[in-house]
UniProtKB/TrEMBL annotation:
Signal peptide: 1-19
InterPro entries: AB_hydrolase_fold, Esterase-like, Siderophore_Hydrolase_D
Source organism of this protein record: Colwellia psychrerythraea (Vibrio psychroerythus)
Single annotated GO MF: hydrolase activity, acting on ester bonds
Keywords: Hydrolase, Signal
This protein's name: Esterase
């Protein structure tokens, strides 16, 4: 092979001649939003539906996610096909990330736990404040800047996020229309959430919501977990059933072979299909 041809051939194949480009989730953006009370700043990951720019008169349901760095990519990818094919209602996806400047899981431990527990090294018990931030600041920001259907809000949380969603359901059930609670950490603070559930059951009137609870079958002490999370999830499910609310629909899913690390993708897509399927069936 002539030297000039060889040089050209090597240049074409050289990685530097075709520099890698960063991948971006289509129709997505990140904005910083300040909690008007605590003054902490939380990035919001926002993805718009494919038809958003063309259907200028349409308002869209919104899916709100905890643990945005983990959940946003999963839910964005998992909903792409069902939404684009018309099997699932198109929705805006909003991932609420952790407070800027927090280290490790400091923000999520504080924000997602309903009660203070002195046995934890990290601060706990900030769920009430975080719930208020979402209701007052996040909801208002979305309503002011996007075409949102305020009657069609879906919450998705996993692990401590599932605990947080359960807290919202018990204290302000009309904040969301749909609750998808994945592998909820009901073991936190000696299962104090169950006491709250018993107390809240006395005041549950005219609840209009869909609640989807999912747990991996291996989330038990007999298999892989340090806690009896399957049993706890089933217990919470039974407590909700005792409310006997006509407009409250509840579904429980135990995911075969899944553990705490692998259950969430199934939780998210099956839960969303249950609440947003265009041919919804119970």
């Amino acid at each position: 092979m002539p030297l000039l041809v060889l040089i050209i051939f090597l240049v074409v194949l050289s990685p530097s001649s075709n520099a890698a480009q960063p991948f971006e989730i289509p129709r997505s953006s990140v904005v910083d939003l300040q909690d008007s009370t605590s003054k902490r700043i939380y990035p919001l990951f926002i993805k718009l539906p494919k038809s958003y720019s063309n259907n200028i008169d349409k308002k869209y349901p919104v899916i709100y996610l905890t643990d945005a760095w983990y959940s946003f990519q999963i839910v964005s990818g998992a909903t792409r096909y069902p939404m684009n094919s018309g099997k699932m209602a198109e929705a805006i996806i909003v991932g609420i990330s952790y407070a800027k400047g927090s280290k490790g899981d400091t923000s999520r431990v504080l924000d997602y736990t309903p009660s203070k527990n002195s046995q934890w090294k990290k601060n706990t018990g900030g769920a009430q404040q975080h719930m208020t931030f979402i209701e007052k600041d996040v909801f208002n920001y979305m309503a002011a800047n996007y075409r949102v259907d305020t009657k069609q809000r879906t919450f998705i949380g996993n692990s401590l996020g599932g605990l947080f969603g359960s807290y919202i359901l018990l204290t302000k059930p009309d904040m969301f229309k749909n609750y998808i609670l994945g592998s909820p950490s009901y073991w936190f603070d000696n299962k104090s959430l169950f006491a709250l559930a018993d107390k809240a059951s006395l005041n549950m009137v005219d609840i209009n919501a869909n609640v989807f609870i999912a747990i991996g079958e291996r989330e038990s002490k007999a298999l892989e977990s340090s806690y009896e999370m399957v049993e706890d999830a089933q217990q919470f499910y039974q407590k909700i059933l005792t409310w006997q609310q006509e407009k409250l629909t509840v579904k429980m899913l135990v995911i075969p072979e899944a553990n705490h690390q692998t259950a969430f993708p199934t939780t998210a897509i099956q839960g969303l299909h249950w609440v947003l399927a265009t041919d919804k069936k119970t």
